[in-house]
Every structure is written in structure tokens, then in C-alpha cells.
Amino acid sequence: MDLVTPAAAEGPGIVVPDAGELWSALRAEAADAAASEPVLRGLLEVAVLRHDALGPALAAHLARRLAEPLMPAESLEDLVRGAGGALVATAVADLAANRRRDPAARGWLTPFLHYKGFHALSWHRVAHGLWREGRFDLAFYLQSRSALVFGVDIHPAVPVGRGVFIDHATGVVVGETATIGNDVSILQGVTLGGTGKERGDRHPKVRDGVLLSAGVTVLGNITVGRGAKVGAGSVVLADVPPCATVVGVPARVVGWCNDRVAALAMDQSIPAGLPTGS
Prior knowledge:
- This protein has a six-stranded mixed sheet with strand order 2-5-8-11-13-14. A five-stranded parallel sheet has the order 1-3-6-9-12.
- It is globular.
- It starts with 18 loop residues before the first helix and ends in a 13-residue tail after the last helix.
- The protein folds into two domains: about 1-150, serine acetyltransferase, domain 1, CATH 1.10.3130.10; about 170-278, Hexapeptide repeat proteins (UDP N-Acetylglucosamine Acyltransferase, domain 1, 3 Solenoid), CATH 2.160.10.
- By secondary structure, the chain is an alpha/beta fold.
- Helices cover about 40% and strands about 15% of the residues.
């Protein structure tokens, strides 16, 4: 699976911009918000308005979110800056995913400032880069700190594609040998875990365009095929075919996709008249 190709266009009404275009729009939104809500002016000045590009603003904001007395913001900001342009490019795609798929996003500023799913995923990308460099202790620190602050616990070894949306971002757990493709949507309470008895390659492989609804558990070295949809509360213990809709405990196929990419459509319904229980 190719995890580094650009994300797909984010559907009607949202075209993934380049970093400069996004920054101009985000900065304009911040200026408007500062004018309409003077109490937020200081926050917006520090987070957005004092910066001249998305990269520096992102580094500073992520650092403030994760800082603690023994790991000051300055040190964390250096780590984000060290990730370079690759992190900025994925951040643009991830922000576009948040804006397109969450009707509450209301522009670029809200997810940039407030969405902990975006912040957790950005920090995971930094940790994954460190992991690939062999800096395991620091990568594990970032994983632990991010899980504590954001409620999202992704092992730093996990490769994650572009345009990924982690909605609400509470109680998300992803094990060491999992993979997550491009344009995936993950809701709260999702676990990509092992069966508890295996070593080695033991976690799920989530292909491009998959929608994992709230409370989904996927266990073992299995594949959730491209464009599949997993209904809320389902437990997946076997491979899911591409474009399938699966629900239940254990999950079973109840239909096939009507949307080009389930993760972009964010339609969590199941075919009418089908049972939803085990």
C-alpha cells in the first residue's frame, strides 16, 4: 500500500489547497476572529497572527499543546520544525479532511486551533519520523504524552497516510504493526489492536478510504479493504472486502458501498431493514 501519495480531492466544495493558500485563508479567519472577540486576541496573536507561514505557526501551536515543565515548548517546537516540509504537507491534507468531513469545522481556524484529533495526528507524524530514525525513546515519550493530553494512543511505528480525519479523538488506540492508508476517517473509541496472544505482525491494515465508525474494534493481522465502511460498535475479526459495509459482533457483510469513498461521504447508516446486533 502506498502511504505517501497525495490525498484524493476532498469532494464537492473543498479543494485541498497548497500551504500558502491555506495559510492566507487561516490568517484572515484569525484576524476576523480577533476583531469580533477581543478576549481571544492574545491567543490568536500568539497562535497565528505573529507568524509568517503555516509551518512556524503549526510548530509553535503543537508545542504549546504538549508542553510540560520537564519538556518545555521550545524543545518540542524544535522537534516539529525538524520534521520539515513533509509535516506541513500532511497537515494541509489533514486540515482539509477535517474541514470537508466535519460540518462543525466552520473554516480552517477551528480545526487548526482546537481539534485534538488533528493535533494528535500531527504529533504522531513527528513521533513516527523519530521512530524511523531509530530515536525510539523520544518517540515513545511523544506517544505517551500525546495519549495523556489528547486521548489518542498510536504506536510511533505506525505509518499513516494523508488526509486522515480522527473525529472527536477520544479513546483511539492503534497498535504497533497496524497501518492506516490515505483518506481514512476514524471516529471516537476505535481500537486497531492485536488478539493478545501473538507476536510479530499482529495488528490491522486499514486501506485507503475506509470509514471506521464510533466504537469499532478491529483485532488481529487482518485487512479492512479499500473504501469499506465499518458500522458503529462492530467487532471485526476477519478481513473486510473492499467497498463492503460490515456491522455486528462479530462483524459481517451487510451491503456494498454506494459512495465512491466511504471515508469522504461520512455516511454511517447501514442498509434499511438489516439487523444491527450480533
